[in-house]
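Hi, here's the filled form for the chain we discussed.

Project: internal
Contact: R.S.
Residues: 262
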Amino acid sequence: MFFILIVVVVVLLIVYVKLKYFTLRGPLPGLPPQFLFGNLIQSGLLLGGVSLPQVYLAFQARFGDIFQFWLGPTRVIVVSGIGDVQHIFSNRKIYDQGDMAIEQMSLLLPDALICTRGAKYKRHASIVLPLFRRGKIISNLHLIVDCVDKLLAKWRLSPPGHIYVDIVIQCQNLLLLIFGLIAFNYDLETLDDNENGSDNELTRALRDLLSTMEIVLFSPPIVTNIYLKLSRRHRRAKAIIERYLYRIIEQELNENSESMAQ
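And the returned structure, exactly as it came back:
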């Protein structure tokens, strides 16, 4: 009798979790999610070797520019129409940051701009966003062009008919190179042939941080918390990046004090 009661309770609990967390909500279209896995198996993202952009394109063709998608237990509302995206980002006072970014990424980067809302977002944005204004970008445009030329020159050295199957990774390497030169005044060597700069301490740390972001994005918060606390690789990468950031701050302070003295 006791065993039957336990079975009934477990079944009811599973049904409750399925109805509450793995059921389509509202009028937005989408594929009914599977228990625990959401749409990961149905879309081929987990077992079919399909990339996330391919999945989004397939869902967009099937359900339109706005649809629901389950990354495991996490419900995501995907907006893919360029007009809708522009409207959302142009009206941040109306459209606040999504819960997914707050709940997931804040475990990794609690003070990042993407993880803030309300007054905290305004304070952070007043400091961060001016760095991306047109004048700041133009002053580094020659550096960005040089980095792109370096990647194109590397591609031109490939034999005719060669097909690149890692364009996303190479573009990621390009962004890391640009970021390192602008932010750190440091060549991360991500476009070199020495295993994508694997001998570079800061490059390895940034790559580890990016790989951790992928784990955080697809994992439940409790799994993310456990991983971040137990992962030596993540703690080491975080310490290395912080050390370089403090070095930049110290260098900038010294340069400013010298310029003021002159």
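Let me know if anything looks off before we file it.
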